[in-house]
Amino acid sequence: MSLAVANPMFAPALRKLENWAAGAALVALGALPLVDLVLRDVFRTSLPGSAGYLRNLTLWVGLLGAVAALREGRHLMLARTVGLLPRSLQRPAERLAVLITAAVLAGLAWACTLFVIGEASAALMIGVVPVWVFQSIMPIAFLLMILHTVEEDPPAALAGIALAAVIGGGVMGAPSPDRSWEPPSSCWC
Fold this sequence. Notes:
It is a single chain. By secondary structure, this protein is mainly alpha-helical. It has one domain. Helix content is 72%, strand content 2%. It is elongated.
């Protein structure tokens, strides 16, 4: 069942929020250099951390653009080549593409979450804003993409998420109840 069917108010509200966030990031990306230029030319000062803000706003615009592309069905996906297959194989191939997409997105969401948690503990700043605040868009965007993938084909997408969890658990190892987590001996890290 799609998110729109499960809660008809959810999908349009989420779409508006995604569009607003992408638009705000894009406007900020265009306005920030202009503000910095005026500050330098008129007041002989600059916005502290403006280059860092711009780098991270670019990250926001790119990831929120990817969310919009996936939501609108305009993203690069394995399913786009399905039309080349015999008609009897097209639907299974579409479902497999959704499964693989969801698995990859789930893996990326998990990895980005761990990354942001690590950055938060480092207490790095860009200007007056902690770096992790900017980087939090990474797991959020991948989770939004997962929601849109689930909306497309819930059983295949949920199977992909489960597959990512199984693969991730096998790669990372499971924490032992009697000791803290340690990488498995076969881990290269």
